[in-house]
Design goal:
About 25% of the residues lie in helices and about 25% in strands. It is of the alpha/beta class and about 350 residues long. The strands form six sheets. Strands 1, 2, 5, 6, 7, 8 and 19 form a seven-stranded mixed beta sheet that branches. A five-stranded parallel beta sheet has the order 10-17-11-12-13, covered by helices on one side. Helix 1 packs parallel to helix 2, helix 1 packs across helix 7 and helix 5 runs parallel beside helix 6. It is elongated, with a radius of gyration of 24 Å. The protein starts with a strand and ends in a 10-residue tail after the last strand. The C terminus is likely disordered.
């Protein structure tokens, strides 16, 4: 399959797709099949209440917001494919890409790519983590919090920021008690989120505390070995659930060896634009934003990527017909009219 534009994953990708579809470029959007362990729609689907996205005075659920973006993308003609792009070749245009489990087949091709793969939750690689991953350990409270193994049982959240506070509060709906492990002696969460967390009667916060091992019965998680980093005390904490909220890793493994990235793996773009180090490849959303990482800035950068991609394709098409244009330049009263160029201010 050959496409004009392929957009990969996330809210930035949906925003880009909406603009590109309205421009009649027939974009294809790969939303991923649990890519990086996250449901289609990206990190926003792990958020319960989005209260700072304009247009929703009462707030909106993250999954609900992503469903609405998806519906809008489809409305204007975006082809959405629930598959994961696992390999790309950016050495020349048209760019080649392969889908997961089909790497040995003929590649798909695209004239342009918008990379909006976002970021995934950072894992701690504790002893026992791999054994009990998805059997008590998770990085998505919204995805997994309602699973029966967590209901009316003790749950632990690791992290001290807004995400940790939000996940812990969400998990109080299901667990008998939620313990939050904070490495430092205070929360990093915003004042409003910290207040909500500390005032919740089902939440206990253990400061200066880290997890050092996950233990279970061989099938399900049953407890966590924790350590007080100041006193050195080590003890078992009964817990049927362990949820990570300790930051994110940009999902750039797909392109890290072909695009310029910074020391932490975020795609480097030309300041104020979505241009990457490869002509015809654009980046939007959290995959290139290490500072803000907000839904609204992600959507805005998706818009920028779409407009710049549209301009790029139009000018490439103009360049391909340059010899025709040169031969057929119009004259009015002896003045040669300028050739068409897309407006750089669009």
């Amino acid at each position: 399959m050959h496409s004009k534009v392929v957009s990969i994953s996330g809210p930035a990708a949906h925003t880009a797709a909406i603009y590109l579809a309205r421009a009649e470029l027939k974009p294809v959007l790969y939303e991923g099949m649990l890519a990086n362990g996250i449901a289609a729609g990206g990190q926003l689907t792990t958020t319960t209440d989005v209260e700072n996205y304009p247009g929703f005075p009462k707030g909106i659920g993250g999954s609900e917001l992503m469903d609405a973006m998806r519906e809008q993308s489809i409305r204007f003609g975006t082809e959405i494919i629930t598959e994961t792009v696992s390999k790309v070749d950016l050495s020349k245009r048209p760019f080649k890409y392969w889908l997961e489990y089909a790497e040995d087949q003929e590649p798909h091709t695209a004239d342009s790519l918008i990379i909006a793969t976002g970021a995934s939750a950072r894992r701690l690689n504790l002893p026992g983590e791999e054994q009990y991953w998805q059997s008590g350990i998770s990085a998505c409270a919204v995805c997994d919090g309602a699973v029966p193994i967590f209901r009316n049982n003790p749950i632990t959240v690791i992290g001290g920021g807004d995400s940790a506070a939000e996940e812990a509060i969400f998990l109080t709906k299901y667990g008998s008690k939620v313990t939050v492990l904070v490495r430092r002696d205070k929360l990093r969460a915003s004042p409003i989120m910290a207040r909500r967390l500390t005032s919740n009667p089902k939440v206990e916060i253990l400061y200066n505390t880290v997890a050092i091992e996950a233990k279970g019965d061989g099938k399900l998680l049953k407890s966590i070995v924790i350590k007080n980093v100041k006193t050195g005390e080590i003890r078992d904490l009964p817990s049927n659930g362990l949820f990570y909220a300790v930051g994110h890793e940009p999902a750039t493994a797909l392109v890290r060896k072909q695009l310029d990235v910074d020391q932490d793996g975020y795609i480097v773009t030309k300041p104020g634009t979505s241009y990457t180090s490869v002509k015809g490849v654009f980046a939007a959303g959290d995959v290139q934003d290490r500072r803000y990482r907000q839904a609204v800035t992600s959507a805005g950068s998706g818009c920028i990527a779409a407009l710049e991609c549209e301009r790029f394709l139009a000018e490439e098409e103009d360049a391909g017909q340059e010899h025709i244009v040169e031969a057929k330049k119009s004259e009015v009263n002896g003045v040669v009219l300028p050739e068409y160029k897309t407006n750089p201010l669009l």
